[in-house]
Specification:
The complex is a heterodimer. Chain A is α+β, with helices and mostly antiparallel strands. Chain A has 19 helices and 19 strands. The chains are: A alpha+beta, B mainly alpha.
Chain lengths: 730, 158
């Protein structure tokens, strides 16, 4: 089947009637973001399946879905509709069968009506119609009942996932995590199910023949009871073997899963270890950075405190000490002079006192006072009347005593004595003078230390930045989503490794037991045979043997056919993989479809020596998947898929570089008789377009460029002016 | 009579115009933790620290400005200032810069001594006012100067 054309009328962003015509070979529709590429893919999908992709739910939704309905219709068409009028959206595809020359036209339409109040009536269903035109004959409508079978002829459901897909579906289509992905694909695209049928049939035939043989054996047995015992023992053993087989399958499945998980992590392990190292280093650097910062801040904070604690405030203030010293010096000299003068006066007084005969206070003042009162000298017992010289002499003795007492308490030289306080100020100044002289030195040292810490901080910071950058680079380049998760990878890897050892042991144990049980069955069967007195007819024995062989052949044939398909698939996948990556040096390795313990196959990316590649980026993974998808179609030559159905893919290479995009298109042109690739990769890249045209050569079909009338930004507020312009390049 | 005690009983003032741009900006009023001080750019724990700094700045630069009719702000008495040896140094420096005759001072009557002590306090205020003026001028002319932790050490230079 070749898709001849698609005509979109008022479908989503396509205003009016827009028609694309396609040919055999590679057809390209090129457009930037927001140009209507996905809507074109929607058009194909809607006309066949009545569904479009809903960006809200990320799923294909039917026309009746609340988010779809009116949104199917062009906003511009709706804006031009008068109240009471209606707008119809329609998609029509024309499909051509080159072998027979038949042509089918399939149309789906959906009409909404504008009410007088300006709201829209949006029905929940679309209308589908089809016409069939045989070569040289007029076209005739296809009944609704036949439309469904026509649709399946255009694209069978089992083939659909591998023929029509969007870039973002590739991941789930070939899901490496689901180990039956390839088994499923092979079953779909091959006649392997016929072998399943033969395998089952041969098994049942063998069992029937064996039962018949057993019945006959019992009949000719010498000991019927023992015969029954042995038969039931054999049955018991077989049911135990069956149970063990289930156990074996489960263990094999567990082993496969554990190996898959371990393999998954293998690629991450090296990165995880590096991430762990870098992360530890970052933590260490952060601690050092914090310490340095805190020390620096502490020192900086202490600078101003030092103005007072280390007297830096007095920096350069020695001259003030000197000035005070000068003033204090003058003060002390004057004061000392005053004190000297007073001292001189005092000494003169002392001289006077020394001229008396008797020592001071002899006689004691109370006796002198009595003598004055009695006016008589009690020493010489003579009269000394008041006013006489004798009285005066006695009086002088009393004065001399008072004068002596006064001598003990010298007169202050000034009214106030601040000398001690002024002296303390002087001494305080002198004491601080030492620290003032040190201030310059201390400040210089402290600033030097801070500068050193600043330099050290910068050095650690630069090292930390570089380390963090490397850490991010490793995280981005690896499949590990975050630094945190990397820390678990090593532990997780070890846990899967341990699980593998356990499951392998389990498997071994089960297989040994199965062998033991099989041996027991064999021995029991022999004993059973030994009981026979008569002879079981030869034909019965031969029948059992022939049917056992038939059963084994059916089983091994199925396995051989399946393995051959796998080999073909692998070889084809590698062909496409190399083709797509031919111009990209960064892609290494080859695809290996590896058999798992549970008999399923998984695609792996191995290096030249057969070791799994440790660092595969997203592009590589998608490429492997695309290669496998192509291989599913191309592996089995008898499959009509590649010949009969067109590939339609929207943005399959959106995650790739230019070389990949060309590689994919070239490979698609070789695998599929018709492919329609909707892509952004070639938009505004005439050189790349020309390269593609040259490389694909005569397998190039039509090439269109689609462009919106409004930029993506303008579209936001003016959807009702939006339309898509198409230009046919080839 | 105790001369220093009488001096320390006095509470000097500063011009209110410096309160917001200088005092409030650089002082964590009422003290506080060093790291908080540092983070908020408040380099002085108390107003008296800034005041002593301003006075020393004025004294060192020999720059004093009478407060004259400026509206003033009183704060805590000198006796509460710390550390004591620096407070004494400031007093010593003010005496050194004053025209006070120490010998004459001792012969004065109490009320006259009080007058002289007040004159010394006034002189301290003038030098502090000079210091505040220098700081404020710097704030206006070079606002980024005070973003450096060393600013107040640097200001003492020269």
């Amino acid at each position: 089947m070749i898709l001849k054309s698609i005509t979109l009328t008022n479908f989503q962003c396509y205003f009016g009637e827009v028609k694309f015509e396609f040919k055999e070979g590679l057809n390209l529709v090129i457009g930037d973001n927001g140009a209507g590429k996905s809507k074109l893919y929607d058009g194909f999908y809607w006309v066949l399946y009545d569904r479009v992709f809903d960006s809200m739910t990320r799923e294909f939704q039917p026309t009746g879905h609340k988010d779809i309905r009116g949104n199917l219709v062009s906003d511009k068409a709706k804006s031009q509709c008068e109240p009471g009028g209606s707008v119809k959206t329609e998609v029509e595809i024309v499909v051509f069968n080159p072998q027979k020359g038949d042509e089918y036209t399939l149309t789906r339409s959906y009409t909404i009506t504008k009410t007088e109040s300006g709201t829209w009536r949006e029905p929940s269903e679309s209308v589908q119609s089809a016409f069939f035109k045989e070569k040289y004959l007029n076209s005739r409508p296809v009944s609704q009942a036949d439309i469904e079978s026509l649709r399946r002829r255009i694209l069978p459901d089992d083939v659909k996932p591998y023929m029509w897909f969007q870039g973002e579906q590739v991941d789930s289509l070939i899901d490496f995590k689901k180990n039956d992905t390839l088994t499923r694909a092979i079953n779909v695209l091959s006649d392997i199910s016929e072998f399943d049928f033969y395998e089952e049939l041969s098994r049942k035939a063998y069992e029937t023949a064996e039962k018949e043989f057993q019945r006959e054996s019992r009949r000719v047995s010498s000991n019927a009871n023992r015969n029954d015992e042995l038969v039931s023992k054999i049955e018991r053993l077989r049911s135990e073997i069956e149970r063990l087989e289930i156990e074996r399958i489960l263990a094999a499945n567990d082993l496969t899963k554990a190996r898959e998980k371990k393999d998954d992590l293998l690629g991450k392990l090296e990165d995880a270890q590096r991430i762990k190292e870098l992360s530890t280093k970052s933590t260490d650097l952060k601690v050092r950075l914090k310490e340095t910062d805190e020390r620096q801040n502490k020192m900086k904070a202490a600078i101003n405190k030092s103005l007072f604690t280390r007297n830096w405030i007095l920096k350069g203030a020695v001259f003030l000490v000197d000035a005070y010293a000068a003033k204090y010096d003058e003060y002390t000299r004057i004061r000392m002079r005053k004190e000297s003068e007073q001292e001189a006066q005092k000494q003169a007084m002392d001289e006077i006192l020394k001229s008396f005969r008797l020592p001071v206070d002899v006689p004691e003042p109370i006796f002198i006072q009595q003598m004055l009162e009695k006016e008589r000298c009690l020493v010489c017992d003579r009269e000394a009347p008041n006013g006489t010289e004798a009285y005066q002499k006695i009086q002088e003795l009393l004065d001399r005593s008072k004068a002596h007492k006064q001598k003990r308490k010298p007169e202050p030289v000034t009214k106030n004595d601040f000398s001690n306080e002024l002296k303390s100020l002087y001494q305080n100044g002198l004491q601080l003078q030492g620290t003032i002289n040190q201030a310059d030195h201390e400040i210089k040292n402290t600033l030097g230390e801070i500068l050193e810490l600043e330099a050290k901080y910068k050095e650690i910071k630069a090292e930390l930045d570089a380390n963090e950058q490397e850490l991010m680079d490793v995280v981005n380049a690896s499949q590990i989503t975050s630094v945190e998760s990397s820390l678990n990878v090593v532990a997780e890897f070890q846990s899967h490794h341990n699980a593998i050892i356990k499951y392998e042991k389990d498997l071994q144990r089960i297989e040994i037991r199965m062998e033991e049980k099989s041996g027991e069955v064999k021995n029991t069967e022999e004993e059973l045979r030994s009981l026979a007195t008569g002879k079981v007819p030869k034909y019965m024995e031969e029948k059992v043997q022939v049917l056992a062989d038939f059963r084994d052949i059916a089983k091994s044939t199925r396995a051989r056919v399946f393995n051959r398909l796998i080999e073909q698939l692998e070889s084809e996948a590698n062909k496409h993989f190399f083709n797509m990556t031919a111009e990209n040096k960064s892609v290494r390795g080859r695809i290996k479809l590896e058999k798992q313990p549970n008999d399923n196959y998984m695609p792996k990316n191995l290096d030249r020596d057969g070791r799994p590649l440790s660092s595969i980026n997203d592009s590589n993974i998608i490429l492997i998947k695309l290669a496998v998808i192509m291989a599913i179609i191309s592996a089995k030559r008898s499959s009509p898929a590649a010949e009969l159905y067109p590939l339609i893919s929207d943005a399959p290479t959106s995650k790739f570089g230019d070389n990949y995009a060309i590689g994919f298109c070239r490979a698609a042109s070789e695998v599929y008789s018709q492919s329609i690739v909707i892509s952004k990769d070639f938009y505004n890249k005439p050189d790349l377009q020309n390269r593609l045209f040259e490389e694909v050569g005569d397998k190039l079909g039509s090439v269109y460029v689609i462009e919106p009338s409004l930029s993506e930004e303008e579209q936001r507020g003016h959807r009702d002016e939006l339309e898509i312009h198409i230009t046919k390049l080839r | 009579m105790e001369f220093i005690k009488r001096f320390e009983d006095r509470a000097p003032v500063y011009a209110k115009i410096y309160r917001e741009p200088v005092v409030d900006r650089f002082t964590l009023v009422g003290g506080g933790r060093e790291d908080v001080k540092f983070e908020t750019g408040k380099y002085f724990s108390n107003v008296y620290e800034l005041y002593m700094y301003a006075a020393m700045l004025g004294l060192k630069k020999d720059y004093r400005l009478p407060l004259e009719d400026l509206e003033t702000q009183k704060f805590i008495e000198i006796r509460a200032w710390r550390p004591a040896e620096l407070v004494r140094f400031v007093l010593m420096a003010v005496i050194a810069k004053s025209d006070l005759d120490l010998n004459t001072l001792e012969d004065l009557e109490d009320n006259q001594v009080e007058g002289k002590i007040t004159a010394l306090k006034d002189l301290l205020e003038e030098y502090a006012n000079g210091g505040f003026d220098l700081i404020y001028t710097k704030v206006k002319d070079e606002p980024y100067f005070f973003e450096s932790e060393y600013c107040f050490v640097e200001l003492l230079e020269g």
